[in-house]
Amino acid sequence: ALREDTVLLESKNANDLAGNLFQILKELTSEEYKNLKVFLAVRKKSEKKVRRLTEAYHIRGYRMVRYASPKYYRLLATAKYLVEDTSFTDKFIKREGQIYLNTWHGTPWKMMGKDEELGAYAIGNVQKNLLYADYLLYPNEYMKNIMFKAYMLEDLYKGTVVDEGYPRTSIFFHTEHYQNMREKLGLTDKQANGYMPTWR
Question: Which DSSP string corresponds to 124-190?
Answer without folding.
Answer: HHHHHHHHH-SEEEESSHHHHHHHHHHTT-TTT--SEEEES--GGGGGGG-HHHHHHHHHHTT-TTS
